[in-house]
Amino acid sequence: MKxxxxxxxxxxxxxSLFDMKExxxxxxxxxxxxxxxxxxxxxxxxxxxLQQEIELNTHTDAVKVLLEKLIDLEIIKSLEEIxxxxxxxxxxxxxxxxxxxxxxxxxxxxxxxxxxxxxHNPANVLGIxxxxxxxxxxxMAVVFxxxxxxxxxxxxxxxxxxxxxxxxxxxxxxGFHGTSHKYIANAMKDILGREDFKLISCHIGNGGSICAxxxxxxxxxxxxxxPLAGIMMGTRSGDIDPSIIPYVMEKEGKNVGExxxxxxxxxxxxxxxxxxSDMRDIVxxxxxxxxxxxxxxxxYVRRIVDYIAQYYVLLGGADAIVFTAGVGENSVPxxxxxCERLACLGVKIDLDLNNGRGETLKISTxxxxxxxxxxxxxEELMIARDTLNLIKNR
Length: 394
Ligand code: AMP
Description:
By secondary structure, the protein is α/β, with parallel strands linked by helices. It has two domains: 2-144, Nucleotidyltransferase, domain 5; 193-379, ATPase, nucleotide binding domain (Nucleotidyltransferase, domain 5). The chain is 39% helix and 20% strand. The protein has helices at residues 59-72, 104-112, 121-134, 154-157, 163-169, 178-192, 244-252, 256-265, 268-273, 279-287, 291-315, 325-330, 332-341, 379-392; strands spanning 2-8, 13-19, 24-32, 40-45, 48-53, 82-89, 100-101, 140-144, 198-204, 208-214, 217-221, 320-324, 361-362, 371-374. It is globular. The mean pLDDT is 97. Adenosine monophosphate is lined by residues 205-206, 234, 278-280, 325-327, 330-331.
């Protein structure tokens, strides 16, 4: 069985083709600058990398080229080999608590939810329509970033604001990165050999969120109505006092959209450090003793620790803390600092084991009160798995 996992952006299309027998990627790649001058694609397969500039006016063009190339490069013999296509969807509102097969209702729902994810949902629909046109008989599924968090209860997902905002406008916490947190929960189920565990999953990349998981279910998460909430990120502020927004609007003569743009794109590590959003840059600048950058890094770690502590209390203890995504999987000093600040909870890591990277690894010592793991996330595989399950159970 072969499944393609797709992540469509407004001008890009990322794919991974899986052989589901061994859950192995047989080809992956990216189509970029779709509809913009200078469009190109990259396909990686068999340890090789093919890169080419090519005119791509629409996402349908990209899908056509992708399928042609998969055959030309002998990655597949014919399109018949593709059993299903899974699409990553950012927002499924509170209707979709699981992945589903695509039909016309699903597409129109996704279009309706565009006001909740204006940058992402319309782009995701472009990807679905493109595959529908080019592979009309191949079943497709949608896998939502929000779905895993639909198990949160009202106390977790309601904001302390007028109830009407929730009832009439859908103002509530939705949470994101659900596909990654679900992957981590499944990985920990395999490691621990049971489902009844309390887990704090820390997805710390350029975007970041933490999820409290009990018995395989999300019971709270840091992102909220939008991905701007929660921990401090590469360029996003995370939680702030909302009164700052009108204050800065007046000071800088900006409208609300412009200030929100500042909070999404010019805040977080980048905003505080005035240097970089990339943790590698931040860590090397800290080694030079730059005070402003050190404070930014400290704040970043503090926000993570604040939420881990909060979720430790919410869960009534924790069996494991998992670090995943770009920073979580790779940054030795950030993992160390977070764990050092959690020492009062009895967290202890082995500094040698903490040097590990890119593989699933337990880094806590035997006498640590909470196990600490690095688990590389794989959202693409999760999408392919859900797609395959839905197709099998049709
Ligand atoms: P992601 O969004 O999950 O792809 O994560 C991207 C972020 O991971 C980058 O912006 C970097 O800050 C961080 N990152 C990647 N590799 C490393 C590394 N070796 N050390 C520290 N941070 C890293």
